[in-house]
Amino acid sequence: MKAISYAEYGDPSVLSLTEVPDPKVGPGEVLIRVRSASVNPVDWKIVAGYLDPLMNVDLPAIPGWDVSGVVEQVGLDTPEFEVGDEVMAYARKDWVKGGSYAELVAAPVRTVAKKPAALDWHQAAGLPLAGLTAYQLLTRLGTKSGDTVLVHAAAGGVGILAVQIAKALGARVIGTASERNHDVLRDLGVEPVTYGEGLADRVRELAPDGVDVVTDFVGGVLDVTTAVLAEGGRHGSVVEGEVQQSGGLYMWVRPDADDLAALGALVDEGKLTVPVASVFPLERTADAFTESATGHVRGKVVISVSE
Predict the structure, then answer these.
(1) Is residue 267 domain-resident?
(2) What's the whole-model pTM score?
(3) Roughly how many angstroms between the first and final C-alpha of the chain, as a whole number?
């Protein structure tokens, strides 16, 4: 099969289109014929070697954890799926080796859910990691109807999903973003505020009594978070471990088929959409990494693997 792989850590130039053996399908796994995959910051950080102290990487490796596609083969003891099922997955394993930037990927069933009919392949590939990150942080913080939620980086790949999920949970949502993204947030029912100097004051103007929940998807905003949090409020970050020093939750997303199915249900109910910023063919994965690394992408960067 064709796949993007790398044999050494480095910048996107270490990626190359290669021919590799088809993956084996173990017990409790399904083989997915990949239609689309998506790029998350963690992908190019892994390739750069930033996560080497944290995860085992078996080089040469195929990057990528997000995938949408069709089940081509099922392993032993996989009653959840059948050949031909349209699925999506946050197909993270316990080590980095056989990822989703390939024509085929073997994924544990604990990572896989049915693809919502309302999403195309690109959108479905963009949902798992980013959607689960947003959903798990919001739910672990106990977000509920009537809460006022502040979402840092509300127009980014995770934030744009977090604001919709928070709205679906019944919360009032305030989102930080550059002014060019304010209209997009307003269309989603979000009250936008411009990030930068004076941000805490701008949030306080909208929520004089403070906010109940703060989610951080960008880092470097802990001072603002603590300044606007209401008494008894909850806050968390997926970027900055220092939040724990002020009683916050530091979280890294987990693969979870049930949570992913819950996101699919929100899509089917018309409460969640997945904006796609750009689509690259498999052979231009390096360009997709470069675009993602700018940090100024509204929505998801997607890799189209097959039609």
Answers:
(1) no
(2) 0.95
(3) 15
- The verdict on 147 and 66 lying in the same domain is no
Domain of 179: which CATH number?
Answer: 3.40.50.720
What is the identity of the amino acid at 64? G
The answer as to whether 57 is a domain residue is: yes
Predicted confidence (pLDDT) per residue in 202-251, tens digit: 999 999 999 999 999 999 999 999 999 999 999 999 999 999 999 999 99
Q: Which residue has the tokens 């930033």?
A: 50
Domain that holds residue 143: 131-250
Task: Report pLDDT digits (tens) over 258-303.
Answer: 999 999 999 999 999 999 999 999 999 999 999 998 867 778 999 9
Same domain for 31 and 119: yes
